[in-house]
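Slide 14.
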Amino acid sequence: MVPAPSMPDLQTEAMDLAEKGAKLACGSRFKRLPRLILRKLTLPVVAVIGIIWFVYAEAMAVATRWMENSVPGVMNTGVLSFNAGVGFLMYLCCVYRDPGRVPTAWRPPALNDLETGDESGVDGGAHHHGGGHHGGLQELKRKGGARYCKKCAKYKPPRTHHCRVCNRCVLRMDHHCVWVNNCIGHRNYKSFFTFLFYITVACCHAFGILAGDAIGRFSGGDDDVGKSHADHRVNHGEDDSVAASVAEMAALILSLCLSVALCLLFGWHCYLVVNNKTTIEHYEGVRSRLVGPKPGDDGQAGGDGYAPSLDGVQHPYSLGARANLREILGRRVACWLAPGCSIAGDGLSFANVASMGYARWAEEKALRESELTLMGED
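Slide 15: predicted structure.
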């Protein structure tokens, strides 16, 4: 008896068939495109896409039948389509955008000094290799010493963590999200944040439309809303079948649950953005210490305005609410929610309170805040 093919075998055959079709249709240059697209389409990703478009389709059907070509109808369908479309686009960016890889040649500055415990001269190498080390702050592993990933055989830049699912280190890793089949890191965090915003607004809007239609259905014509719905169904032959009613009720319940969950998740990430934290940093903290000569005092202790330790610092990468918003969302306030993928910078170095002392930190904070403009250039 011939054994049935396993799921991996079926996936491999499907990939090979898709590659052959793409090669015949578009040439050999694009033959790997189906594999790049399909390898990310796990069951949770397909489920998210299906739920989004199911709720959107039901809300659009209700809005189109209910309000037709009236001004409110056009506005509702237009706004819902825009928010759902941008949210879906940002979702695809989360799925397919690389969250950030550690350069192969990256090494912590003054590595030998740190490993031997000799802290002299550490500050002098602060600007080597893309500035992965800011003056007096050095992130440490649990047992001390430079952070090194044995699985990737690479040193870890600040705020970088190894993902067991992706099996690699990710720059400024926030978390691994099974619903996007990808890590959320430096190069796709803004797309994740804007996805949450637009899809939350779209779900709340869809819930409002579906709830209004449900109220009209169940009121039974006893009030003005019910009469308008009843007249519309009679005059336009609206489908009152059980299947249609069940589909709309399912979409209503889904949109309510999604609206609540997404509002909570978006609020959580607003908190993280305002404090310039990642989810990992919030729960695990930042293990770091001050090393080398104190910045700004030419190697002499007790420089003006310098913090002698990190004991009083809640989060070393926080520059204040306004400056944190500028760091993550950009200088132009009007473009904070514009579609985009990555955070500014290379993901290897970040401004921090220990890199300059409190006096210079306050100046840097004021500078970052002053860079905020409504529509100015970056």
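Speaker note: The longest strand covers residues 137-139.
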